[in-house]
Design a protein that fits this description.
The complex is a heterodimer. By secondary structure, chain A is α/β, with parallel strands linked by helices. Chain A is 31% helix and 14% strand. Chain A has helices at residues 2-8, 47-62, 82-86, 102-106, 149-164, 190-199, 206-210, 224-238, and strands spanning 28-29, 35-39, 72-77, 95-99, 115-121, 126-135. In chain A, helix 2 links the parallel strand 2 (35-39) and strand 3. In chain A, helix 2 crosses helix 5. By secondary structure, chain B is mainly beta. Chain B is 6% helix and 67% strand. Chain B contains two helices and twelve strands; from the N terminus they run E-H-H-E-E-E-E-E-E-E-E-E-E-E. In chain B, strand 8 (101-106) and strand 9 form a beta hairpin. Classes of the chains: A alpha/beta, B mainly beta. Chains A and B meet through helix 1, helix 6 and helix 8 of A and strand 1, helix 2, strand 2, strand 3 and strand 4 of B.
Chain lengths: 251, 169
């Protein structure tokens, strides 16, 4: 049995935690069902192409099994202007928009940075405002129409990660690593999954158990059915179920 | 029954990941499991079990940890004298802890300060578990199990598998 126990402690794949958040006590957005409004007014690529890129980036995060996230894109372009967003007066956030004054708005080098993100939290750590700036500054080296589609998907998925509250990761293969070098698809690494799950933990079955249609991400109360199941399982494995069942040795 | 063996997570993602990313989307680790079986008639039995994936994931300085476990409530049937099949619902849980910390990381042009929160979170998923047990005699058995999380959602569906050697205590 000592040998069997030792097997369990052998590290066969060296996955380590390297994720971070953008705030010291960040709690994510109040809702897990975020709708990204898209302002296409100044975009330098076709709307259909942009929507397709956004959908792919969003779905990368929607596929995290342990996170309670349901992201979507609004069907119509937002009427919010870039100026309103920069002035923090936009009403529909999170936003994704193309910025013809990218360098001025973000302070980033528009020859090297194709996109940037911004997210603000209130005093409780809840994210209340945020969005993704796409570089639509004509003549700049990193303007989005000059970026390969596959790279744009990865870049946008990374920026959406920031809007959701994730900071950079020191794992160079994580989506939240600062560089997209060496990446061809928006692969969500286990490290990214852990980081986003810490912000939006999934409590499957909780909504049905409490008859609540709107699942709030912070409602992580354990539903009664799973408490009963857990107790039954623990009683059984600890051998206390003999008071209920006749114990028999099996295979 | 106590078991020890190998856990492989996110199998589909492991085999479809781009070159060099398989170990980033899927992990192969050890697993310890305890089972207890209760006869329900001549061939059928009820077998709750608890599996813990080891070692847990942790940050470089140990300030954050992530523990994966699966609680299963399986029904089994003896197919022949040495082989049985099990199936049932389960709950896969991911328990994470982290202590407040600031981290300086590259942001492309300089460095920025990022943060680890100071709290614990628990995430759990419903799973469908199925597996076979082959009796090797003298209390030993070989077990192969498949865990399917988020069965109804194609984006979130994940396949995990274990292969364990068990001993009847």
């Amino acid at each position: 049995m000592k040998l069997l126990s030792l097997i369990g402690f052998v590290t066969l794949s060296p996955l380590a935690i390297a994720w971070t958040h953008t705030g010291s006590n960040l709690r994510g957005w109040a809702t897990s069902q975020l709708v990204f409004s898209v302002n296409t007014a100044n975009c330098t690529i076709a709307n259909a192409e942009l929507f397709s890129i956004i959908d792919e980036a969003i779905n990368a995060w929607n596929g995290v099994p342990t996170a309670n996230l349901s992201l979507s894109r609004s069907q119509v372009a937002s009427t919010t202007t870039v100026a309103e967003f920069v002035a923090l007066t936009a009403t529909d956030s999170p936003l994704i928009f193309c910025d013809p004054s990218f360098a001025t708005s973000t302070g980033a080098d528009s020859d090297y940075v194709p996109a940037a993100a911004q997210a603000f939290s209130d005093s409780s750590g809840e994210l209340v405002y945020g969005g993704v700036y796409l570089n639509a500054q004509l003549g700049s080296g990193a303007e989005i129409s000059g970026i390969q589609r596959s790279q744009m998907v990865i870049i946008l998925a990374h920026e959406i990660g920031h809007v959701l509250g994730l900071g950079h990761s020191s794992n160079l293969k994580a989506l939240m690593y600062y560089s997209v070098a060496g990446k061809t698809t928006p692969v969500i690494a286990q490290d990214d999954m852990d980081g986003i799950t810490h912000l939006y933990p999934r409590s499957e079955g909780a909504s049905q158990a409490f008859g609540c249609a709107a699942v709030h991400r912070q409602n992580d109360s354990v539903p009664m059915v799973w408490l009963v199941m857990a107790m039954a399982s623990l009683l059984g494995t600890l051998g206390l179920g003999r008071f209920v069942f006749k114990p028999e040795r099996l295979l | 029954m106590a078991e020890g063996g190998v856990w492989a997570s996110n199998l589909k993602e492991r085999f479809s990941a781009p070159d060099g990313f398989a170990n980033e989307v899927s992990e192969i680790k050890g697993v310890l499991r305890i089972r207890r079986g209760w006869h329900l008639g001549k061939r059928f039995y009820f077998e709750p079990n608890f599996s813990l994936v080891l070692p847990w994931r942790s940050g470089a300085d140990g300030s954050s940890r992530a523990f994966t476990s699966v609680l299963g409530l399986e029904m089994g049937v003896s197919l022949v004298s040495f082989l049985s099949w099990r199936v049932g619902p389960g709950v896969q849980s991911l328990f994470m802890t982290s202590s407040a910390e600031t981290v300086l990381l590259n942001n492309g042009t300089a460095t920025s300060t990022f943060f680890l929160p100071n709290r614990m979170t628990l995430s759990w998923l419903l799973t469908v578990d199925t597996g076979f047990t082959v009796s090797l005699g003298r209390g030993w058995s070989l077990n192969a199990d498949l865990f399917v999380a988020n069965l109804a959602n194609h984006l979130r569906r994940r396949y995990h598998a274990t292969m364990t050697l068990g001993y009847q205590l």
